[in-house]
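pipeline: protein-struct stage 2 | run 1193 | S-layer homology domain-containing protein
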Amino acid sequence: MKNFTKYFLVITLVFSVISTSVVAGTSNFSDTKGHWAESSIERMVGKGHISGYPNGSFKPEGQITRAEFTAILTRIVGIDELKNPFSDVDDARWANGIIGGAEKVGIIEKLEYGSKFQPNIPITRLEITKMIARALIIEDEYKEIFDTYASYDQGKLRFKDAKNVFNKDVPYVAFVTDLGILTGYPDKTYKPLNQASRSEAVVMLLKFIDHDINSGSTGGE
């Protein structure tokens, strides 16, 4: 697989307005001390991939939109910007090229969204799982592994709420789970349709980047 860490990118997690200024290079956030994802947030800050807000906060439980997560993931992978194929191009103009590039390589599947991507809607945990899986299977060796999950159904998932995952989505969930990128909650649930928090996005992106599959967690991932 491509060494994703070779892309030296300063990727700012901005979840309300893309032009929001941030405090770069600090891990001394006012609201992450003792948080379950504190160490992951610090590691991502250390790698130069995320920053916080001007007031010194990170807002780990804040939301992340479809466009914002897509922007971070595609920049890590190194996807070129292309024309946005969706009709709601006025909703997040800053992300049009990002969305177009992600759709072109298959990270976004247009058939799943129809004519509108709705970029400003908070992204779900299932959407993040599927985007990460699709970013991985751009590489042939991962595509071969992913294909072995084609026949999987809900019964193959380790989560107590596996019934909430459609069978067509099971291969993505099983694939990312077996790679250690998705671990779920302490109560053994996945909660696929829940809106993902900033901290959950950070943890999954960190595991995607360095495949830290042996690091346990005490929170959402």
